[in-house]
Design a protein that fits this description.
Blueprint (H helix, E strand, L loop, with lengths): L3 H22 L7 E7 L13 E3 L21 E2 L2 E2 H9 L4 E4 L23 E3 L5 E3 L5 H11 L2 E6 L6 H12 L5 H8 L10 E4 L12 H13 L10 E8 L3 H11 L5 E8 L15 H28 L6 E9 L18 H16 L4 E7 L9 E4 L2 E4 L1 H9 L6 E3 L1 E4 L2 E4 L2 E4 L1 E7 L5 E7 L6 E8 L6 E6 L19 E2 L3 E4 L2 E6 L3 E7 L1
Parallel strand pairs: 1-22, 2-5, 2-13, 5-8, 8-9, 9-10, 10-11, 11-12, 12-13
Antiparallel strand pairs: 1-17, 3-4, 6-7, 14-15, 16-20, 18-19, 20-21, 21-27, 22-26, 23-24, 23-27, 25-26
Helix pairs in contact: 4-5, 6-7, 7-8, 8-9, 9-10
The structure holds alpha-L-arabinofuranose (AHR).
Alpha-L-arabinofuranose binds next to loops.
């Protein structure tokens, strides 16, 4: 039965809609009122906090100078790990961190990265600039980092150039508490008790840098390697098979068909590359064409996930296997004057919108997406943090993750969005992106992005099935599309209080400024 309140809300929406219609009839400029309906008393899927995960590879200055400065550094650190970075990542509640790659993972031999520093052999990082890697940041340092961050470690093993034995022994070294040669070696290196390690990847991009394999071949290799990735001492491993990228649906089909029953998760990679691989954009010098192209490409991941997920449904209708989007983000030209192999790029308001809309997509598809890891945490690709000597800057992308942390482990709420279009040169995309959740204490959070860089968006949002009393909000925006934080001016972009939102009879009304990311909290 309709309650009086619900009738009132419906009437308000009808009135607002007719206002749009009539203003058009009188030949005035059409005002689009975007309508959102949120079913606050429904929702059954949990947004896995690991969707807010990150990725750190031995690439450029991500590990060295990013996370790791060494104990003797004048930069404040705990056992060699930068304290400012740890504090910042804890503030945004980093849930999981993937390491050591990436393409580096399939060239990494973990035994080179344990024991006294002076005895660790160097190697050449062949994939990323052929620079010398001294192996000072290894297994103990990574697991120490995760303990300092309070996050779950996710280690990617070497399939491309490593042996089954090497992988088996790594798992034993980390997780076996009894007595065997590997646990003895760990103790000799100063760690008595085994670590907990839940997430383990069996290779990375084995269709490319991880061994150029065909899916049929990799499926068998996966079956073999995963046999020796054992759960010891109460530690239960979530095995992640190397998955597909972009529109390669064949890889997903073969992997699910041949090895689906032996995996807990299947990875997936998608990068937003405006201009394309051969003609990448600058991270900070761009116009509306590049803005539109970037957001359109970023939105495409919605369709990609749906299609890969449909293939997975065929073999796994109960959605037991998680889709683990363990590399995603923007990929631009490197900053002028920097090593092209180090993938160092700046990060602007455009990246904040990419982060906001992508996280909304992951939230809305959380029945299949169980983890995602942005590439990469510090100084590489769509980074959260940039460092220069002792200086550290938080990027707009960092601020989006910090604002969205309220969705972690909350219940996804079904959302119906009817919105206007953002049109550019005859092409169009939806002007708004939205997702909503209810946390354990009953607070509702709505994250809305206005992708249009020119027009504000009037929004009316009905909260069905809630007794909303108050609303507060935060916003991230700037006057300029290309706005970004620098070492000289580090706070051009940071979240501000968002006040222009009203709540009456369970109806929220607001106007979102152009090119903005907003998170509302309703109590
Ligand atoms: O993140 C940079 C690289 O992109 C990773 O090493 C690889 O997995 C992907 O191709």
């Amino acid at each position: 039965m309709l309650t009086a309140k619900r009738i009132l809300s419906c009437l308000t929406l009808v009135l607002l809609a007719s206002f749009v219609f009539s203003s058009d009839l009188f030949g005035e400029e059409q005002i689009t009122i975007n309508k959102i309906v949120i079913n606050a008393d429904l929702g059954k899927n949990i947004i896995n906090k690991n969707i807010y995960g990150h990725f750190s590879e031995h690439l450029g200055r991500c590990i060295y100078e990013g996370f790791w400065v060494g104990e003797k550094s004048p930069i404040k650190n705990t056992r060699g790990i930068r304290s400012d970075v740890v504090e910042a990542l804890k503030r945004m509640k980093i849930p999981v961190l993937r390491w050591p790659g990436g393409c580096f993972a399939d060239e990494y031999h973990w035994k080179d990265g344990i024991g006294p520093y002076e005895l660790r052999p160097s190697m050449v990082n062949t994939h990323w600039g052929r620079v010398t890697e001294n192996n000072h940041f290894g297994t103990h340092e990574f697991l120490d980092l995760c303990e300092q961050l309070g996050c779950e470690p996710y280690i990617c093993g070497n399939v491309g150039s490593g042996t089954v034995r090497e992988m088996q022994e790594w798992i034993e070294y980390i997780t076996f508490n009894g007595k065997n040669p590997m646990s003895d070696l760990r103790r000799k290196n100063g760690r008595e008790k085994s670590w907990k390690l839940k997430y383990f990847g069996i290779g990375n991009e084995n269709w490319g840098c991880g061994g150029s394999m065909r899916p049929e071949f990799y499926a068998d290799v996966y079956r073999r390697y995963q046999t020796y990735v054992r759960s010891f001492s109460g530690n239960r491993i979530y095995k992640i098979a190397c998955g597909s990228y972009g529109e390669n649906y064949h890889w997903t089909e073969v992997l699910m068909r041949e090895a689906g029953s032996l995996m807990s998760g299947l990875s997936y990679h998608y990068y937003t590359v405006p201009g394309g691989w051969g003609n990448k954009n600058s991270a900070t010098e761009f116009g509306e064409k590049e803005w539109f192209d970037t957001l359109k490409k970023a939105l495409f991941i919605d369709e990609l996930i749906q299609k890969h997920s449909t293939i997975m449904d065929k073999y796994d209708p109960k959605k037991r296997v998680g889709l683990v989007v363990d590399e995603w983000g923007t990929w631009y030209k490197v900053e002028p004057g920097t090593n092209p192999s180090f993938l160092y790029q700046q990060n602007s308001l455009r990246d904040a919108l990419v982060a906001g809309l992508t996280l909304n997509i992951f939230n809305n598809q959380c029945n299949r997406v169980k983890m995602a890891n942005l590439a990469q945490t510090i100084n590489v690709l769509q980074a959260l943090i940039l460092t220069k000597g002792e200086k550290m800057v938080l990027t707009p992308t960092y601020h989006v993750f910090e604002m969205y942390k309220v969705h972690q482990d909350a219940t996804l709420l079904p959302v119906d969005l009817q919105c206007g279009q953002y049109e550019f040169e005859g092409d169009k995309i939806p002007a708004l992106s939205v997702s909503a959740s209810r946390d354990k204490s009953g607070r509702i959070h709505i994250s809305i992005n206005n992708l249009d860089p020119n027009n504000a968006a009037k929004v009316v949002c009905e909260l069905r099935g809630s007794k909303a009393k108050s609303v507060t909000g935060r916003i991230l925006t700037a006057a300029d599309k290309t706005a970004h934080n620098t070492f000289e001016i580090p706070e051009t972009l940071k979240p501000a209080v968002f006040k222009t939102v009203q709540l009456k009879n369970n109806i929220l009304s607001t106007t979102l400024p152009p090119k903005s990311v907003v998170v509302l909290e309703i109590k």
